[in-house]
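User: What would this chain look like folded?
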Amino acid sequence: MISYLLLSSTGLLVLALFYFVFHKNETFFQQNRFTILVGVIVSLVFPLFENILSYQQQSFISESLPVIYLPEIIVGNQSIEEQSIQWSWSNFILLIYSIVLIVLAIRFCISNFKLIRFIRFHKKINFRGSTLIYTEGKYPTFAYLKYIFWDNTTSLTEHEQELIFQHERTHIKEFHSIDIFLMEILKIIFWFHPAIYLIDAALRTQHEYLADQKANQTTNDASYSQLMIRSLFEDVSLNVGHGFQFSTVKSRIKMLKKERTNQWKRVSSLFTFSILVTSIVFLQACVKDEFDIKDADSQLAEVTSEQVFGYQIDGRTYWDVQNTFSEEIRSNPDDLKFINVLKGEKVPSYFNNSVKGVLVLSFKDDLNTELIGKLKNLPSTSLVFDINENKEMLAKQDEKSDRVFEEVQNPANFPGGMNNLYKIIGEEMKYPQEAKEKGIEGKVYLEFVIDEKGNGQDFKVLNDVDPLLSEEALRVAPIVMKGWNPANHNGTIVKQRLVMPISFKL
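Assistant: Here's the prediction, encoded as structure tokens.
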């Protein structure tokens, strides 16, 4: 989120800079308008794409553990402790940003609600194909959507009324309200960025130039200029409408009298777009990954859990620092493709010493897109583990020994289902007395292989939570891991590797 705001803000800053340098004094009003709009869209959309010039960076090599992940079994107290909320500067800044955003959004909605309510309860007059609403002095004259709010208390000659009408009708025909709505929404999102206010003012100014140009075609420069000077003393600001009294009178009069810009200068818009896109792409290539790591560091360094889950998606690793999604993901083991374990010295350096082990999960292609969207809001770093390289390593290992399958057509299963297995484990496994006395809790990840005869073998604990808990898991496992229905792959009985999380809770 923060990195997106940075990249988008940079694009808006570049757009504002190039507008004031190359486009502000040009008389290509319509082209300037579209230059601003397209530039804004580019600034918003391009940062959403993965870094065009990036490469997948392999920071750490892990022990490969492609497995079927079994549901967790809890030994001891069945209640699950809530994770304490970890606050950091990034959390605080995001909170302030969100509060201001909500306040501005409410104000925007209220402004529009008042105008819509005024439209609904006041008489509408069809005048030469346009819809007028008399404001009786409650609002100045301005265009809003397809309506012209007309202040019928202002003393104007018929000629002046015609000029103002042509001006406001141009706003409606050119759909300027859509531009304004877009900019108002962007001002809510990027309320902290000065460039967005400059761009908004620039776009409104181009709207006025276009409307002035159209209205001035029916009269002479002098009379129209006099009308604008007069309107200066009646200026009332409206965020969501186009008022004839929009306070750029001096520049508008100057632009009416300005000689038309040479046509060859139209290419300046292409130059602006090329610089804008290049700036965003270059910034992505140079700092996106580095910024994300720095942003994540403040949260990762504060993690106090002994195990941390990471989710590998689209070439990045997203860290579940508060275990928000781990239970949901573990409850659907069929979605998992690989589990990669990092222990000891292989734990990434951005974690503190309290983190003893890291599990990086990668998913199958059909993972729920809504879940992926949620996971991508987690703090992330560059790719921790290269799946392709580990697959080659596994293939070499398989050539030297009996192959152990991880993905099979018919996985190994326990007679009576997992609930029956966990019932048997619960009857056999005891919470170590010494661990109880010392208040030791933790989660043990027990790896084992179900052989062709349905019996467990190669038992080992993947994480070193505490020797007392590990010993109990290794004591019980050989006793209960018997009588499985072995895995079947392509009509052949095969071995399969499994991992069972065992949570010891007091």
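Residues 89-121 form the longest helix (33 residues). If you want, I can go into more detail on any region.
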